[in-house]
Design brief:
Blueprint: H1 2-44, H2 49-56
């Protein structure tokens, strides 16, 4: 009986970790999309320090 309980507990943990990984991947892709959008906007900005430092390099 303990082997079955161990197996089910382990499987439950794996499922939980997979769900958490899925959520984190979704968050990561959203943050990457927002980052790229901000980067694009900053490239167009004429007064941003980011733009100034990027043109000097």
């Amino acid at each position: 009986m303990s082997k079955i309980r161990f197996f089910l507990t382990r499987e439950a943990l794996v499922r939980k970790q997979r769900r958490e990984i899925s959520v984190l991947k979704t968050e990561l892709s959203e943050l990457q999309r927002q980052n790229e959008s901000m980067r694009t906007g900053m490239r167009r900005c004429l007064t941003c320090e980011y733009r100034d430092s990027a043109t000097r390099q």
